[in-house]
Write a structure and sequence with these properties.
By secondary structure, the protein is mostly beta strands. The protein is 13% helix and 40% strand.
Length: 180
């Protein structure tokens, strides 16, 4: 990993301290061509991978591919990979993990554990509209939390056809995810 120098704040520009390398320009979200600057100032390119069970691969393909709009990757007769908003999920045939509604989000009790994604608000809204139009049964319907406060976010919870819980959050600016 390269060390970043010349930071001018979370919405500024940075240059990469690699000899002979041209400076990299970062948007207000500290993103450059799929790479991120961690708050420590370290230049990182990392993806998460999560594998979990689903009961039916055809239903999973329809839900993750058609409803959520995720691109399908490799597969066999027992698993399928998806590009889950830039990260890899692998859905394997089997018994989904057990969940309990023990996570308090406002006045709602939501399933724990759950997986999720944080999107910029316009993309979150498009997904919320698509899920609503598809008749998804929300655990927690699309709503706004902490309005006008640091950390203002939109959120929604739903389950895939196998019962796996998913939360999608939306932020106006991704660099405000950890604001207090």
């Amino acid at each position: 990993m390269a060390r970043i120098t010349g930071m001018t704040g979370s919405r500024g520009h940075a240059s990469c301290a690699r000899s002979g390398a041209p400076p990299l320009s970062f948007s207000r979200h500290n993103r450059y061509d799929g790479a991120f600057i961690h708050r420590s100032g370290t230049f990182m390119r990392a993806l998460f991978h999560l594998a979990y069970h689903v009961r039916d691969l055809d239903q999973a393909r329809d839900f993750y591919g058609t409803v959520l709009g995720c691109r399908e990757g490799r597969s066999t007769d027992t698993w399928v990979d998806f590009d889950f908003y830039g990260h890899q999920i692998s859905l394997h045939l089997g018994q989904p993990f057990a969940t309990t509604d023990t996570g308090r989000v406002g006045q709602h009790m939501v399933p724990m554990p759950h997986l999720g994604m944080i999107l910029e608000m316009p993309e979150w809204q498009r997904l919320a509209d698509r899920l609503t139009a598809s008749g998804i049964d929300f655990v927690m319907p699309p709503s706004l939390r902490f309005a006008g406060e640091p950390g203002e976010q939109a959120t929604m919870f739903f389950r895939d056809p196998s019962g796996n819980p998913i939360e999608i959050k939306g932020f106006a600016h991704l660099d405000s995810v950890y604001d207090k």
